[in-house]
Amino acid sequence: MKNEFVKDSGLSLSSGILIALMVTANGLAASIFGNWISLVVINLTGLLTAGIVLTIKRSMSNITKGIPFIYLLGGAIGVITVLFNNICVNNIGVTMTMGLALVGQIITSSIAEHFGVLGMVKKKVTLQKIPAYLLMVAGAVIMIVWI
Amino acid sequence: MIYSLIALISGGTVAVSILLNARLGALKGLYKGVFVNYMMGSLLAIPLAVIINGFTIPDIAFNWALIISLSGGMIGYVVVLLNSHLTPKIGILYVTILLFIGQIGTGIIIDGIRDGHFSAGKIFGSILIITGLAYLLRLERIKSK
Predict the structure, then answer these.
(1) Whole-model pTM?
(2) ipTM score of the complex?
């Protein structure tokens, strides 16, 4: 059980390493193909990979059936994420792009959870949590100011 | 400064798409969910590229950089599968913090190689962000117990 936990923790770390490599690769795609065509390249290679796996698993049917429109927007919003990441990576580097993005992500998801958006379990932003947010914002400010 | 703001906003878009894709995955299953995610991405990216660029394909040399640049979409796919396999096993809190440590550690090395030096500000800022994140996750863990 303990070994399993260590293995899964190692896998989580590796997944983080993969994300950094992905952000770097996507930034490279943007500098080779340009910002807009790189978005097509990145999404089509992802689509191709997902399509191959679905074909092997023989589940290429009823893919879009019964999906509420709003759930489809996740992929579309992902395009904005990749575009913004690509613009940032080539200007402020991988560390700052991911560090600041994490702070933005935590703040946004805390606000969403505070109000229970889209049926999420409500988690109020309590006074107790404020120091945690302040630490993260301070980290972001230091990254921006202290180059 | 403007790039810092764009990076912050990109994190906000990540939060929203994670929320929507989690719903999509719960409805259609993980594999179909990821496929639909990339399909919608392509359906938006193609017209955007045509409208803005006229889809003129730039002159591209076939080399290692090109091969690496094509790997981002595939790596993204592997990451989504890996994370949804790990999250129910060790919990979203641990996954989030370990993911971030892995990302930032690698980011610092990549930036160090690219820039030729390591930035103390980036390292110190990352440590503060990780500390804040760990504190927040700890509070939520105590609360959920």
Answers:
(1) 0.89
(2) 0.89
